[in-house]
Structures are given as structure tokens and as C-alpha cells.
Specification:
By secondary structure, the chain is mostly helical. Helix content is 74%, strand content 0%. The chain has one domain.
């Protein structure tokens, strides 16, 4: 006679208690999504048995296919399991609040005391070089899961080239999704590819004034920051690092801040208890103050709330359509190419002030090797600290602050 399967349901919690529970999770959310998901699994699945392990695994698989920080989306979904959609909002806000407040404080410290401080220029440059290594490792790690066949590899390379030559990112994303979804219908796939090439050639010619205005620097607005965050939130496939190109394009690309400051924000996000996409809060604070930080954060996290709140009853079945799987796989491959192009652009900007290239390359190689071989939530904070120490001890470049 087999033992009965224990009942799986969350305890009855008021909204205040639910908020405090997920606020605690948020305050302990160090180490990136793997550590965050493991914490949620251990507490709510293995110990308190809110849902059974098999359902948790299916849910996690679905959320990894959809865009957005999966740990935060898990919190929203589990909050709905506990107290309906109001519970989902409360749980999601509780989980993100510690990181949001800490990053806003970090943004204030950066703007007030760090940016423009010549004495800290070397330290910041060392950190930026290490962050490039962390991005490179993340790019390879994500690519290993996404690039499953030759066509996806070709899509990634084509997306890399298209991004480097200035094609708007939405063109390779859309083309990649449709081409891979229609691969078994070669004529339709070829038609989509031809249309994408035509659009890529026509857009720069048809909209030169718009492209010049963006390059020259449009005024900072709360709406523009919200849209920048929303793009990142909607297109974050395979990990938070995939949000980097879109936020960078709409902020650094408009001249609102430098690549160096952008990398400083990614470094700070890696050591705070929060999803890594909280780097957007830093970017928003630097260019638009507290209101800018809140605007870009709202855009970044809105999809993470919306997918669970809108699709809760169908979330596990909505991605069962094979055509949708193939479309998302094609988009994800294109994202890898866009990340690679963004990495190249960030590396070029970071290398500009370097006067000791051999030392900078050695630091990058050491950080990349460490990021490749070491595992654990402590790795990124230690690497960032090591980069800061190297930049302090060794003159890497000209006296230039991160901003």
C-alpha cells in the first residue's frame, strides 16, 4: 500500500502576510535567478507544499520560454495561487521592492558622489572590464541552450551582422521568429526573409531624420524611459542579460549616458538582492532621477506581472503550440546575435580610455576564466570586487570617471 500524496495548497495568508513573506524572499534574493528559484522551490514547494513539484517544474519550463525574469514571474504566479490576482500583485511587489529601493539608493550615491570623481576612474574601469567578461560568459551560456541547430546558428550570426550595421533590432527579431517557424514551408520563409531585407534597406533611407534625431540625443522623458524598460521586459528571452541591448539602445544610443556608466549599473545589479534586470532602475535614476528610475522599472517589470495575471489559467497550456515554440526559438537565437553585437560595442567603448591594453586584456581573461569555471551566487560580487581592486592598484587607463 502506497503512502497518500500530501495535500498541496498554500496556507491561508492575508495580503499583508503574503507581502511580508515575499518581501523576505526579495531581501534574500542574492546570486541570480538560479539561486532565487532554488530558494522559492525549497520554501514553497518542498517545505510548505504550495504546489506539487511536477507542476512547479512545468511552470518553470513555461516561464523560461516566455520573456521576463522567471524568478519574479514565479513569485507573481505563486501569489495568485495563494490569494488570487491581488495576491499575485502583492507577491510580485514584495519580491522586487528590496532590490528597487537598494538600486535607487545606489543610483543616488553614484550620481552624488561617484560620477565625475577622477580618483575613482581606475576603479570603475576595472569593474567595467570585469562586467564585460561576465556578459561574455552569460552570452555563451544562454547561447548553448538556445542554438540547437544550424539554422538557429545562422540566424544568430545574421542578427549579429544586422545589428552591427545599424539595422533596427525589431527587424531581425521578427524575421528570425517567422523564418524559423516557417522553415518547413521554404517558399514562405524565403518571402519573409526577402521582406525583412527590403525593410532593413528602406527604413534607414525613409527615416533619416528620425535616425539622426535619436543619434543626436532626444530629450529625456518619463514616457521614453517607460518604453525602454518595456522593450527589455518584453524581449528578455533566456535570461536578464538579454535585456541589455534594448535598454542600451534607448538610453546610451540617445546620448543620455555613457557605456561606462551603463556597465557600472550592470555591476551594481549583480551584487544586489534582485533580478539582474534591476540595472534598468539605475539607468533610469542616472538619466531621470527618482521618477525616471520608477518609470523604466515599471516598464521592465510590467510584462512579468502581466503574463501571470492575464494568462494564469492557461499559462501552462498557452505555449503548447509547436509553431509558437519555433517562433520563440527563432527570436531567442536572434537575441543572441544582438547581445553579441552589443558586447562588441560595449567592449569598443570600454577600451577607448585604456592605456595599458595588455593589463586590461589580462584582467578580462582572468575574469572570464573565473566566470567560466566557478559557480555560485558569490561569483559575480567577488569578480566585481576583484575588478575594482585591480583598477585601484594598476593604472589601466586615462583619468576618466564612469559617467
Amino acid at each position: 500500500m502506497t503512502d497518500p500524496i500530501p495535500d498541496t495548497r498554500p496556507p491561508h495568508l492575508g495580503l499583508g502576510a503574503l507581502f511580508l513573506k515575499f518581501l523576505t524572499f526579495g531581501a534574500l534574493a542574492f546570486g541570480g535567478p538560479v539561486a532565487q528559484i532554488a530558494m522559492l522551490r525549497q520554501s514553497l514547494v518542498e517545505r510548505e507544499r504550495w504546489i506539487d513539484p511536477a507542476r512547479f517544474n512545468r511552470l518553470l519550463a513555461v516561464l523560461q520560454i516566455l520573456p521576463g525574469p522567471e524568478a519574479h514571474e514565479l513569485c507573481v504566479h505563486l501569489g495568485i495561487v495563494a490569494r488570487g490576482r491581488r495576491g499575485g500583485v502583492v507577491a510580485g511587489l514584495g519580491f522586487m521592492l528590496p532590490g528597487l529601493l537598494l538600486m535607487m539608493a545606489a543610483g543616488w550615491l553614484y550620481v552624488t558622489w561617484i560620477a565625475g570623481n577622477i580618483e575613482l576612474a581606475g576603479i570603475l574601469l576595472g569593474v567595467q572590464i570585469v562586467v564585460l567578461a561576465i556578459i561574455a560568459r552569460a552570452m555563451v551560456r544562454i547561447g548553448q541552450h538556445v542554438i540547437e541547430d544550424r539554422l538557429l546558428a545562422v540566424i544568430a550570426v545574421a542578427s549579429l551582422i544586422a545589428t552591427l550595421v545599424g539595422v533596427p533590432v525589431w527587424i531581425p527579431l521578427a524575421a528570425a521568429g517567422f523564418v524559423y517557424a516557417l522553415v518547413h514551408r521554404p517558399a514562405m520563409a524565403a518571402l519573409v526573409l526577402l521582406a525583412a531585407i527590403v525593410v532593413a534597406l528602406v527604413v534607414p533611407v525613409a527615416l533619416p531624420a528620425a535616425r539622426t534625431a535619436v543619434a543626436a540625443g532626444a530629450p529625456v522623458t518619463l514616457a521614453a524611459l517607460f518604453v525602454a524598460g518595456l522593450k527589455g521586459g518584453l524581449l528578455t528571452f533566456g535570461g536578464a542579460y538579454t535585456a541589455i541591448p534594448y535598454v542600451r539602445a534607448d538610453t546610451v544610443g540617445r546620448g543620455w549616458l555613457s557605456d561606462a556608466t551603463f556597465l557600472d549599473g550592470i555591476a551594481l545589479a549583480g551584487v544586489l538582492p534582485a533580478p539582474l534586470v534591476i540595472f534598468a532602475t539605475f539607468v533610469g535614476y542616472v538619466v531621470g532621477g527618482p521618477a525616471g528610475a520608477l518609470s523604466i522599472t515599471a516598464g521592465m517589470f510590467l510584462p512579468a506581472f502581466a503574463f501571470s495575471l492575464i494568462l494564469f489559467e492557461r499559462l501552462e497550456s498557452v505555449v503548447e503550440n509547436p509553431a509558437l515554440h519555433r517562433f520563440l526559438a527563432g527570436v531567442a537565437a536572434a537575441v543572441i546575435g544582438i547581445i553579441a553585437a552589443t558586447f562588441a560595442q560595449l567592449a569598443r567603448a570600454t577600451g577607448a580610455p585604456v592605456t595599458q591594453p595588455a593589463i586590461a586584456i589580462a584582467l578580462f581573461a582572468i575574469a572570464l576564466t573565473a566566470a567560466w569555471r566557478l559557480k555560485g551566487g558569490w561569483v559575480i560580487p567577488v569578480l566585481v570586487a576583484g575588478g575594482a581592486m585591480a583598477g585601484w592598484l594598476v593604472p589601466l587607463g586615462i583619468n576618466r570617471a564612469g559617467g
